[in-house]
Here is the input.
Amino acid sequence: MLFTTFYRLAKTGFVNFLRNGWLSLASTIIMTLTLITISVFLILNIVLTQGIQTIQDKIDISVYLKDSATSQTIFNMQKDLSNNPDVKQVNYITKDQAKQRYDTTFANNPQLKDSLDQSGNPLPASLEIKTYDPSKLASLMPMFDRPPYKDAVSKVSYQDNKQVIDRLFKATEFIKKVGWGLAIAFILTSLIIIFNTIRTAIYTHKSEIEIMKLVGANPWFIKWPFLIEGILYGVFGTALSLLVIYILLRLLSVSFNAYFGGGSTGDQVFGFLMQNLGPLLFLQLAAGITIGVVSSSVAIRKYLKKS
Amino acid sequence: MIYLKEVSKVYNKSAKKALDNISVHIKPKEFVIFVGLSGAGKSTLTKLITHEEEPSSGTISIGGIDYSKLKKRDVPYLRRKIGVVFQDFKLLPRKTIYENIAYALEVAGIGGKTIRSRVPQVLKMVGLESKAKNFPKELSGGEMQRVAIARALVHDPKILIADEPTGNLDPKNAWEIIDLLLKVNEYGTTVILTTHNKEIVNALKKRVITLKNGKIIKDQEVGRYALQ
Ligand SMILES: Nc1ncnc2c1ncn2[C@@H]1O[C@H](COP(=O)(O)OP(=O)(O)OP(=O)(O)O)[C@@H](O)[C@H]1O
Ligand SMILES: [Mg+2]
Here is the structure.
């Protein structure tokens, strides 16, 4: 009995979807566009956030130490910094390590390399500091201007880079905000459109709903085939939108490669899609089905109010 | 079995009453014909019995169920006990003829086996076996009317309401339908028929209730058509 009913409702939903022809096609296409909009903005935002993260991870400051600084002072300074909850990482670069770095950097420029070798090692030891949030770097500055560390510090690189860091920081914040603002605007717009499409589709069947009631159908018996049609918009919308996204990115990466050679941004984005195909499929399916079912059940409610 | 007591129906407050202080008692297994000119209130009466419309005043009860105490969720169960041939057929456009008739059984959760044997049976009764796979829009008015009759009968209702069921039929088909109603009535179903057809009314020799401007002006055990 339960199975029979379930089978009937599902079958009716499928059959109605097919018999609706153009209307189903239109709803499915609108659903596809909705899902593409959601996915594209989500992907863009993830890529953007990752990009910003990568840039921010590169932001650090170097505190250059005077040769006269005692190892005790350096040790204390390192400990103080490590105890600060904002600080992610503190690296002590000795004079020798600084020299080694210099040598590797200029390995194929013997002139520059030799010029340093002759003058002993003038490179200072330093502490390289990273914070979890680059905007917190500024708050570390005062301690280097006060005793007991004032005398040990010769220079802090932050002062030189301050403007660049600030600007970069402001830009990334701006891009993030605009990104999410656009995403929300587009997603909301497409949700309104798909809801209205489904509402119109159900409106065209309102006399059928009346007839069903008159021949003794329960509200849920009337409702479920419509919800199943909604689910089908979501399922076919997912399939179509993945196909469209796949083709678009394929074309994009081909044309990118033509300009910039292999391994370009196009390839990276395409690779990102391939790696996240599972989650994307799941996300679209969940979003599509939810949108379909919620829209349908909200739209049909007013026709079922009266017995 | 069917009681209407001082029932009135007003659709819009300004308009005249579609039904005006109607009281009727229809006994089980009775065959009742409602006659009346267009707009007399025949369809309104049938809509009150199926709970499609609610009375503006008065009480209705069927089989001991008082409609004013009927809960919204019980209405579908009530409707499954009544078969209605709607004046405008009310077939589902996205379903085939077969599916339209089967739907009246599906809503009641009746098994597939019963449906597969019962639907062809009623289709044969109304002579439409060959149209089972067609959609309503592919049928003539008379054929749609016969589908509506088949659907109203398929679940062996206790009460059959036929609102102008012969309106679109030629005399031969009309009489076949009337014979069908008589047969169903013989097997124990209460039949309520509304019609304009003088010939049929006079030939049937059944109870005739005449409506005029929403009022009952005549109620005869063996009635005749008494309108111009
Ligand atoms: N839904 C409605 N809204 C407003 N007025 C209505 C409605 N349905 C019927 N009426 C009015 O109620 C009156 C009775 O209508 P009803 O349909 O019951 O007549 P009828 O006897 O069935 O006529 P016919 O023989 O033409 O089918 C008419 O004046 C009609 O205009
Ligand atoms: Mg009528």
